[in-house]
Each structure stands twice: as structure tokens, then as C-alpha cells.
Amino acid sequence: MANFSTNEFKAGLKVMLDGEPCNILENEYVKPGKGQAFNRVKIRKLVSGKVLEKTFRSGESVEGADVMDTELSYLYNDGEFWHFMNNETFEQVAADEKALGDTVKWLVENDLFTITLWNGTPIVVTPQNFVELEITETDPGLKGDTAGTGGKPATLATGAVVRVPLFIQTGEVIKVDTRSGEYVSRASK
Amino acid sequence: MKNSRCQIAETPVWQMQITPTNLRLRAQLLARIRAFFTNKNVTEVDVPVLSHNGVTDPYLDNFVTQLTLGQTSTSLYLQTSPEYAMKRMLASGSGCIYYLGKAFRHEGAGRQHNPEFTMLEWYRIGFDDRALMHEIDELLMDVLSVASAEYLSYHAAFLHYVDLDINTASHDELITALAMDFHYDIQQASRDHVLQLLFNIHIEPKIGKERPCFIIDFPASQAALAKISSADPRYAHRFEVYFKGIELANGYWELTDAQEQSRRFAADNVIREAEGAVQVVPDPRLIAALTHGLPECAGVALGVDRLFMLAQNLDSIEDTLAFPLPRA
Question: Which of B181, B184, B196 sits opposite A35 (nearest CB)?
Fold first, then answer.
């Protein structure tokens, strides 16, 4: 893999840091008039998901990370691995529990997920930003409550639990933001 | 501001980045600067942008080009500032002078950086750093419509914002105060590098928020081309101007001692060697001018594009230019 100098740093560039592939989120070049230039870089470690800030000496180089994102649809779980398929090539990859992380609670067969591959191995499985899921269980709400100030927990078909307004009932399909795990609205039919 | 930037980013690359309104306001700013100096009988001068010598400053790099005529090839350096040429003028008897024009630095572009930029530099014979700072303050009040500047010594700034005495703090204490994660070995970094980082990260964002702030009395180790204070040799007669997170100007009560200047140039090359940077031949014409005699004077360099950013509250230096680097 090629090396990248700090001059080539930009959001989205994947590099290796501490033996782990990372995604550069922000890069700020600082050059005091008479002082040494440096780069303040905000980085997400792709395996652990940790976000950190690191300072680089300008001109330093780091190794690039062979990381790519693919859109795959979810097939099934065999008890150990979760299997995904490329709908065009029918190629399949298997992600382990670590790669899946919290995404397990959004898994719906045939839904599309972004699989981040590092040297061909899945390291992160990311759901779409918004998913629509049916509520399998929630307490009956109070009639007439539309403000949804307090809300109540609702269990979704995938097992995820989100807070929904009181007027939402079991059996309804709702739209959820997977990044925050928050209820957005009733699903558009 | 954010919105207008997005719109500008969408314009085709052949088109100028600065808005037509700002183009006119920028011209007015330049006219106002010239009027300021005309009123004070300071003469505008032009300097060669292309010169036979570069600068030794450890962290400044010239663009170098070749003039090839037949068998002879000469290296020519795009000037990082008009300082050397202006000092040669002063030593030649020019009187008080100012330059308003281009300077070039071989470094990256950023929110506050363009490798080619407009610099205002001026020299006042008989002034010390204090007197020159008053004049800078006057200019800033005029062109930015701001209150009179505040003054803070480098030492006091560290005491106040980092809670450290730069004269007694250990290397480890300074590094701990940085509270930053490094990709390189910061333990091996020079004391001045650590001080500069501390200044940049922990002090610069907090000073000069309402009015310009002069940081005065830089440590002697960062004297550059300033006189060392005779009252307290730990400090130099060097200052910088900060306003709203922007480093706007750098000035000195100028060193006039040719031998001391030669020693500092040599010291620069020692740092360059350690940093793996190329060695630079100190400009013999500047040394000759200092040997002949530079009149006692103070001088300052001010970034005009940054001044315009502040005047119009612009987010990026690119918005002050018709064709910043990506469009040049």
C-alpha cells in the first residue's frame, strides 16, 4: 500500500495507525509564521470505532490502509458468522460478531448494509442511516397524546428497543435513525 | 458566511473566487493602507521578488527556480518577504519605507495560507518596537474599525493561559501541558517547538478576541532578526499581532549587528541540518549591508489577505483572492 504524506491528508483517506486502519475525519494544517508546521488530524479507528485527535509533523508520511466500503445485502446468520451478498456479483462475505457490533439490532434479511473491508476482511458493518421496522411490542398508549413528550419503550422486529411517542401502537411500522437509535416518524406507506 | 462559501465552491474553476463586491473592497483596503503611509511620509518601494539568495529561517522555504542562459544556470529564489531587500535599501539611505506586494512561501495551502500572498512590510528609522506597535495599532484601528490593541508578554501569556513559567518549567511539564496526542516523538522535540505548539493550541485561540493583541517580548531563543533586550537578555524585541485566531503580523526592533546576524544565520543552518532540511547560504548582500550599517529601526510584516479576512469577516483566505492556489 502506498504511503501518504500529511500534505495529502483529507477527509475520507484511510491510513494505518498503531496497526489499525483509520479513517481521517478532519485535517487542519497549521503553520505559525516562524514556527514548524504541523497537522491536527481527527481520526476514527475503524475497528474500535474510537475517535481521536493526533498531531502530525507536516511532511510526515503514514502507510495507507487497504480499506474499501461495499454495499451488500444481509442473508442469514449461521450461529457464528453473519453472511452478506453482493447483489450484482453474488459474491458472499462473512462478518464476525466484532465487525457486526451494535448493528446486529438492525439486521433485516435482504436489507442493504455497508460492509467495510480491510484486506478483504469485513471489519465494520454499518446499517443505512434510516430503517423502517415493525413494532412487535409496546405498552398501549394514552389516546389523544400527540406531543410524545415522555414516550415509551417499543421493541422492534429485529429486537432493537427505541423510545416512541405514546400514540404509537404495536404492529405499526416506524422510521428509526440508526445513528442515534431514535424514533423519527411513522413509516411512509 | 458558511453558505456563501458553499456557493463559491460550486463556481467553475476558471471563475474568480472573491466576490465582485469584495474585489472592490479589497482595492479600497489597499488604497487606504497607501494613504496611511503617504500621510506619514513613508515611501512605497518595490523589491525584486526573484533574488539570488534565500532565507535561512529553519521553517521557511523559498521556491527556487533556475535561470538558464546558454551554459550558465543560476538559482533564483522567490522571496518569502521583502525584508532583506528593504534592509539593503535602508542601509543605502532610503529613509522610512514600505512594501505592499507579493511574497511566496513554499508550504501548504490552508484556511489561512496560500503559497503566494500579499504582504505589507514597513520600516521606521529611529523607532523601537514599542513605537512601531503604536503605529500598527493606529493602522488596525483605521482599517478594521477596532478598539486600540492590548499588550501581553509571551511570558505572561504562558503564566495566564497555561499556568507555566517558561523560564523555569521543565520539558516534561511543558509536554504535559500540551495534553495532546502525537504521531511523532514529542519528547525529542526542541523546547521552542513545544512552546510554539503550546502557544498555538492553548493561547492563540484565547487572545485577541475583541481587539487585536500584541504578544511582546518573545524568548531570546526565538529572536529571529530582533535585538535581544539589554534590560533582560532572556527576551527579544520581537512581537506578533493576533486577532480573532489569526496571526496577523510579526515585527522586530531590528538587529543591526552584522556579526550577531551571521551567528544567527549559522545557528539556523544547524537546526536545518538536525531537521533534515537543506542548508541555505546566508545572503552575503544583506550581511554586507549590515556591515556597512543599518540605521537603528523597527520593522514589521503584516499579511494583507488575512487583514482583509478580518475586515470582511471571511472564513478562508481563498475568499480574499481572485484565484487562490486551486484556481491559479
Answer: B196
